[in-house]
Amino acid sequence: MGAEALSGQGKGRSGAGAGRTGAGRTGAARTGSARAGSARTGAGKAAASKAGTSRGKASQAAAGLTKTGKPRPGTGGMGRRALEGKGPTPPAEMRPGHPAQRRAAATAKPAGASPTGARAAGGRAAGTGTRGAGRESSGTGSARSWTGTARPSDAPARGSGDAPEFVAGRNPVLESLRASVPAMALYVGPRAQQDERVSEAVKLAAQIGIAVLEAGPAELDRLTGSALHQGLALRVRPYDYAHPDDLIARAEAAGQLPLIVALDSVTDPRNLGAVVRSAAAFGAHGVVVPSRRGAGVTAGAWKASAGALARVPVARASNLSRTLHNYREAGIFIAGLDAAGDTEVRDLDLATAPLALVVGSEGKGLSRVVAQACDMIVQIPIAARTESLNAGIAASIALYEVASVRSRLP
Length: 410
Prior knowledge:
The structure is a single chain. This protein is α/β, with parallel strands linked by helices. Among the domains are: 165-236, CATH 3.30.1330.30; 244-407, SPOUT methyltransferase, trefoil knot domain (Alpha/beta knot, 3-Layer(aba) Sandwich). It is 44% helix and 12% strand. It contains 13 helices and 11 strands. Strands 7-6-5-10-8-11-9 form a 7-stranded parallel β-sheet, with helices on both faces. Strands 1-4-2-3 form a 4-stranded mixed β-sheet, with helices on both faces. It starts with a helix and ends with a helix. 29% of the residues are buried.
C-alpha cells in the first residue's frame, strides 16, 4: 500500500508537471500570436506611412512644390492647372470698368432707366450682364465664345490723332520747337535748366505761347512711356485731319485744277512730312493717307515738313481705293507711280487735267486694289542699278513734272 501510494503520488506529480508544461506551451503560443499581431500591426503602420508619404509627395507635385516643400522652378508655387490660360482677351466694350464698356452700356441702357435701379437689380453682376449682352453666346459658356461688338457710332476712329503725342529728349524737343510743331505744354525736369538746349527750348516755348511746366522724373517717365527724355518732354497737339472731299473743295475755291497726292502703305512719318513739303512747294491742294497701314501726322512728320503741314491739309481715308473711285466719279484722273508703268512721268498727258497722284511704298510699291483703281501707271526713269526711289523723292519728282506742264498753260 505504501509503495502504490507513493507511485500514485509520483504519477500525479508527473501529470501536474505535464499540465503545467502544456499550459506553458499554450502561453508561449499566445505570446507568439501576440508577437505576430504586433509585427502585422507594425507592417500595416509602415505601409500606411508609406502610402501617406506617397500621397503627400503627389499633392506637393500637384501643387507645384518639390520634395522639400519649396516652389518648383517656373511655377511660383502654383500647380500646372493654375497656370493654364484664361482664353483670349475680350474687346474693350466687354471689359467691366473700361471707358468703352461704359459708353456701350450707356448706349444700350433703355430710356428712363436709372443707374440706382440697375445697381439694385444686379449689384456687381451688372458689369457681367453687360458683358453677356455684348457677346453672342454659343451655348457653351466658354470665355472663347465672344464675337465682339460694334464700336459706338460717335466714337473716334482708331489712330485718328485724337490723343496727344509726346516728344522726348533735348534735341528732338528743340528741333520740334524750331519747326513750329503745334504743342500744348513743355515739361521740364527740376535739374534740366543747366543745359543750353533746355534754356533755348524754354525760351522758344514762351515766345510761341506754350505752357512751361515743371515735372519730376517719375512724372516724365510716365508721360513719355519711360523713354530717354533727359528731363525734357513736349506734348504735341493732336492733328485735325480733313475729309478727302475737302481737298476738292479747296481747289475749287482757289479756281484751280485739283492736284492731290495719295500715299499707299507709306508708313514712315518723315516720308509723309517730305511729301507734304513738296506738295506745298508745287501747288498741290492736299495729301490723302489711309487710316490703317499708313503714316499719320506726328512730331516727326511736322519736323520733316518744315512747317508745310500748317498750310497743306492732310485727309484720312478709311478705304483708299474707294476714295480714289469717288475721285474718279468727281472727274479727277488717277495716276499711280510704279516702276512697272508703261508711261514716263515726263510724258504724262493727264497733267493738264484734274489729277491725283498715288505714291506707293518704297519696297512693295502700289497694292493690287489701289493699282486697279488708277487710270494709268507711270514710272520715273532711273538707272538700272538703282532699285527704287524713296516715296518722298518720287512724289517730289512727279509733282515737279506736273507743275512744269501746268506752268506752260495759257
